[in-house]
Design goal:
This protein is α/β, with parallel strands linked by helices and about 300 residues long. About 50% of the residues lie in helices and about 15% in strands. It has helices at about 10-20, 35-40, 50-55, 75-80, 100-110, 125-130, 145-155, 165-195, 200-210, 220-230, 245-255, 260-270, 280-295; strands at about 1-5, 25-30, 45, 65, 90-95, 115-120, 130-135, 155-165. It has an eight-stranded mixed sheet, sandwiched between helices. The longest helix has 29 residues, at about 165-195. The radius of gyration is 21 Å and the shape is globular.
């Protein structure tokens, strides 16, 4: 099966390599040269021009996977990829797009005879090795065509068509909102542990939490890595946010759902941009958790 990947950032490059390693014919495009060279070294054919990447694909159904920042997807579809698409093509948006935009894009492309799938993609820097979790929205009639892609990218069973267009990105949005709350709760708990007068070895405490406890989780595993490998004291507590937490809070309010924990976690992230909050121990832990699972950058204090 052939597929073209547009966007070779942290996630896009992993997706391209995992598909290539599983006998897919992968073509790839990226605006900058460095990521193109990186995936080319794995044996993947790359292109400088979008039109050339599209022309390399065989006849219908042609499958194009977008792994681009959500702010540029509309422009890319309208001005770069869109004019090259034809009826029967399939477009998958695997980035963190807003679900209402995905509903609109699905409708617009469907009117041109093009199938659209929105895929919430989770797995961070570990996805290439361990498999991604993939929550997909789109037309069930075309699902059998693209399901082999998602099956290979997953770790086995953690993928599926969850509903019509928008559903995939909606489920991923809520996933990230939950992530905000879980990370903040863990970090605040460690803030309390660190502030006590017991002089606790937090790596030891975390090792105990990891097995048999109610709070055992991958985030707790990553927290142990933080205490064993990271310079917590020298890390700034500024926590970046990519938007999904805010979208989840807004969606909850629109639907009349109480989302106070996620809203509070979002507010903490907003307040972390203030230098006076960047020394907070809990903020440092959240920032370092993001680095551990997603390769997100942190700043030094």
């Amino acid at each position: 099966m052939e597929i073209t990947i547009f966007g070779l950032g942290r996630m896009g490059a992993q997706i391209a390599r995992r598909l290539h390693a599983n006998n897919f014919k992968v073509f790839a495009w990226n605006r900058s040269e460095g990521p193109r060279q990186e995936v080319a070294s794995a044996g993947i054919q790359t292109f400088v021009e979008v039109k050339d990447a599209v022309a390399a694909m065989p006849d219908s159904p042609r499958v194009f996977w977008l792994m681009l920042p959500h702010k540029i997807v509309d422009d890319f579809l309208k001005n770069r990829l869109g004019p090259l698409l034809q009826a029967g093509d399939i477009v998958i948006d695997g980035g963190n797009s807003f679900y209402k935009d995905s509903i609109r894009r699905g409708k617009e492309l469907n009117e041109k005879g093009i199938s659209f799938f929105d895929s919430g993609t989770s797995g961070g820097v570990w996805g290439e090795k361990n498999g991604f979790a993939l929550m997909v929205g789109g037309p069930k009639e075309q699902w059998p065509v693209v399901e082999p892609i998602f099956k290979v990218l997953s770790s086995g069973d953690n993928y599926g068509l969850v509903g019509k267009n928008g559903a995939g990105h909606f489920v991923k949005m809520v996933h990230n909102g939950i992530e905000y709350g879980m990370m903040e709760a863990i970090a605040e708990g460690y803030g309390v542990l660190q502030a006590s007068d017991f002089n606790l070895n937090l790596a030891q405490v975390t090792k105990i939490y990891q097995e048999g406890s109610v709070v055992r989780s991958w985030l707790i595993d990553l927290t142990r890595d933080i205490f064993e490998r990271e310079d917590v004291a020298g890390t700034s507590g500024k926590i970046e946010a990519t938007g999904e937490g805010e979208w989840t809070v807004n969606a909850g309010r629109e639907l009349g759902v109480d989302v106070r924990v996620i809203a509070d976690a979002l507010q903490v992230r907003r307040e972390s941009s203030d230098p006076k909050n960047q020394g907070k121990f809990s903020n440092k832990i959240v920032a370092l958790m993001r680095k551990q699972f997603g390769g997100h950058g942190v700043t030094k204090q």
